[in-house]
Amino acid sequence: MSQCPEVIPIYDPDVRRLCTKPYPGHPRGCPNYGKRITCPPQSRLLPELLDWQHRIWLVYNAFDLATHVDKLRRRHPKWSVRQFYCCLYWQGTARKQLRAKVAACLDAHPGTVPLYTPEACGVNVTATMERIGIRLEWPPRKTAYQVALAGYPVETKAAK
Question: Which of 13, 30, 58, 146 could staple 122 via S-S, CB 3.0–4.6 A?
Answer without folding.
Answer: 13
